[in-house]
User: What shape does this take?
Amino acid sequence: MATATQDIQLCDDGGLKHFLTIEGLNKQRLTEILDTAESFVGVNNKATKKVPLLRGKTVANLFFENSTRTRTTFELAAKRLSADVLNINVSVSAASKGETLLDTLRNLQAMQCDMFVVRHSASGAAHFIASHVEPHVSVINAGDGQHSHPTQAMLDMFAIRRNKSDFAKLKVVIVGDILHSRVARSQIHALNILGTREIVAVGPKTLLPENISELGVTVEHNLEKALPDTDVVIGLRLQKERMRSALLSTEDEYFRSYGLTEDRIKLAKPDAIVMHPGPTNRGVEIEASVADGPQSIILEQVTGGIATRMAIMSIAMGNIEKSLSGSRTDSGLVN
Ligand code: CP
Assistant: This one.
């Protein structure tokens, strides 16, 4: 059964108008994003990295939580689609004087913003905003609490598909602090929707959600046992800022059991790829020589994030324009 968050993000014809969660989307929707992202790779490699798909539109980046990769790649993606971009510095905005999230939003809407890219520490923040915006406005979730980080999951799927092509043949190991990871949750949904052969969630009991197997993964507490026959190894950051109690003895002990070391990576397939959404903590969840090594595609993930976010923004804006007017130009956007 679809949840309210799944319902609110779709137009009547099933196209995305907001992008709040991977949950509830089908393979066709995810493949549309991946195929569209592929079409933007060439744009990003040209001398003039611009297409006019969002010309005349205004995108507001609203980041209530710190970010390096997501904020900057959303900004680049919007600019490469020719949108005007507002980066709202929340720490110096009127939010610090007590203005509510909704009032900040209403003021930005009064400035005719067309899209809000939202990162917030509260799970459900992007859904809350999406349920209050005007019909012409699209909301993209750039990470909400421990709930969801759907654009990160899609850029990860993009990187996997470019390196490995067929999800049905893949064994993917996700290792680390899955309990606090919005990225892992979104990745697991996306991998399952795309038909991945096997997904293994690895970590100490204290860092795995109790009901994790209900998401369609195998659970393993021993990383060495999980790695053989693996095509894709995804490391996750220990999210100490979200740990309310001591869930680990020490970082050294965690690294000894779950760190992605050269020796451990040798247990996976020889052509296995190593991924991490970033930021990485070297020597805590990943050895520096693995992060920088030949099997690592960590920076390729970041690069692909621009094309993937261009795809999501252009699809959502195009669908909103279509649903409001019913007429489209060849570019996919309304005149
Ligand atoms: N992966 C990710 O969300 O990184 P940032 O926190 O730097 O955006």
Remarks:
- The chain has a mean pLDDT of 92.
